[in-house]
TrEMBL record:
This is TFIIS N-terminal domain-containing protein. Residues 1-57 form the TFIIS N-terminal domain. Pfam families: Med26. Its main location: nucleus. It comes from the Eukaryota. Keywords: Nucleus. Gene3D superfamilies: Conserved domain common to transcription factors TFIIS, elongin A, CRSP70 (1.20.930.10). One of its GO terms (cellular component) is nucleus. It comes from Peronospora belbahrii. It is found in: Nucleus.
Amino acid sequence: MLNILASLEQIFVSLEMMEKTRIGVTLSSLSRRSDDVEIQQRANKLLKLWKARAKKAMRRRARRVETYGRNYADYELWTSRIATPGINVRRQVEAGLVL
């Protein structure tokens, strides 16, 4: 389990990927239910990192909506799905880089 958490720490997971996979819910459950203190700590650390990224991404989206309007925010969201490194998680799993 620790090697999976270490792998997750090394990859970028976009806000869209977090929303789609709900991986944060899984990590939260793991951090609460695990008997291993190190697993709890690493899962909590990863959750904090991802929450900070998510808040930053949401603030960035809100500023763009205020500045450019809703259509720009939709376009930006669509393009981020194409260019976001987090989208390659499936390929990384298939290649055996992440379990």
